[in-house]
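User: Run a structure prediction on this.
Assistant: Running it now.
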Amino acid sequence: MSDQNLSPNVKSSLSPEKYARLKAEAKAPYKGLRKFFYLAFAASGFIGALTFLARIAAGTDLGKDIPNFALQLGLVAAMVALFTWENREKAK
């Protein structure tokens, strides 16, 4: 949305900080919510990885636990990558 499309009344009624925040939200909607989910899923994967690591250390049912551990590590890696990518877009 360009500045030219706004009526002068709307533009003058907003503080410059609020206008900049609304403009950023229009460019990247729900960015904060996405980052929250990335962190929540990464934390869940980390807890799952610790659980499967303990099961692997105990030596019970390694045929199931090792692939599940790898899946949890993959989830954590994917969420870290997405969170980093989201922050890199901010730096541009």
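The chain has a mean pLDDT of 86.
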